[in-house]
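To whoever is covering the structure queue this week,

Two jobs came back overnight. Logging them here so there's a record in the thread.

Job A:
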Amino acid sequence: MRVPWTLARRSSALAFVCLLVLGRSGLMGIFQGTTANSLLFGRLPLADPATALEVSLASDSWPKTLWLGAGLVALATLALGPVFCGWVCPLSQLLEGVRSLRRRTPPSRQASSNPVTRRAILLCFLAIALVGVLPLHAALSPVHCLSRSIAAGLDITITITITGCVLVAEFIRPHLWCKHLCPMGAVYGPLGRRAPLRVHLDPQTAGRTLCGLCTTHCPAGIPVMERFAQERRPWIDDELCTRCGACVDACPKGVLRLSFNSTPWRQRSGPSRAKELVEGCSGH
């Protein structure tokens, strides 16, 4: 029996928090640092590309180790998509918890993403860094603040204030931070949009069962059924898709699949396949 993607994703995020705590205590030496800049196994650098660029512009220096880490993260995003947002980011798990406390927004009322806004915010931070001011995104990002507080016990008051404001805003308007404001997502989203790891749709059964569960359960607020299943697109190419697999878990007909290719759809044939098509057409 397959482990649900949602369970695997939350376990991954919890494991990352544990690594932050272990790094703080100095145990095991697996991971040291934060979401901004870190070392894996004491040797492999990892860095957030947006933060690396901002810090380099502000300091007028381009450290090789920092940019090696940013390059590795960028390559991982090109291959896997913006998985940091769904599988690693500690803030995203808190935001999901807040959204679960309020009534789910009906699929027809889901706000469309506005990537222009978060890109403009990123450009503002970079412009501020360019004129010689402190790297404000690195200092004030709720994602980095949260990881610093967990990893080193730093900026706890600032973290509570900033994160609290983001959580309240999320309760009032779901998906506000991830869709419209997050500078990190402004990099990871476009960079990983066409990554080989994708949510594929079965071209034969997509759009036949209009239950809307894929849209309802999407943590990013993507109208999966309306924009992709009903239009029978081959895969979800929205830059907000974090490859979290929630839509795959929610689909009662197995229309969606998270994988590196779509060949499993072509390989399925025979009586079981015909039965699935009939059930999809009848809506059962």
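Job B:
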Amino acid sequence: MERREFSELEAGKEGWLVKTLALFAPWTSILRWEGFAHVALHCWNQSSKSIHYTSVDPLSEILSVMSVNLLHIAIRLIGDSDPTFRKACLVAAITLPSDSKCWLGLNQRTIFIYIIDKICSESGFLEALRVVEVAIQKNEDPFQRLRWLQLLNWEAEMIEEHGGDFPSVGFEKLSSLFNQHRDKAEVAFMNVKSKFCCEVAFEDVIDSYGMVLEKYKKTRKQYMNGMLSLHCK
């Protein structure tokens, strides 16, 4: 192989590697405590739907459902500023119930308590809503950095008759609905946040987090192998 061809090949490899890293950059929160917090909220929401979303008032139900999504955004905002949320999460290394009593298990549990306390004290309704509103104005997806939750068969919670995927006209209507009923919406958000922080259990999240982590690793490996295979042809 001539030197020029080799240089072009190396440049091509570097190019697709950069693209791969850029593609998976929004997914890096999976590896951090922010990611564990998102999985915890997802698990809690799935287990509590039948309890919390039984209101006879359609508006209250919609606001409660959307409050879960806003709480995901609020967690993301905390993750942008709090170094503990950006620490590597090692919960997946706890493979047996007895492991939770070892040093690593106790350490991870302590961090989890800190994470939940931080969410409880610093998750802001107005700040999260503003992020969504700005994204809609820019025609961007406010949940782009959270799409990895689809590995848990998650989609941003929506009431079918009131909207579709983000950022859609349906969500714009819901954002408008939040602004029209600002006081009720904020109360709904605070209620959801309070229930989540009081009810979520560390042990209930471990298996789901391990599963999403394995799916992420598998997806990334398949993508990189596929790109390498195409490039080498």
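Note for Job B: Confidence is low (pLDDT under 50) at residues 5-11, 155-169.

Please reply-all if you pick these up so we don't duplicate work.
Q.
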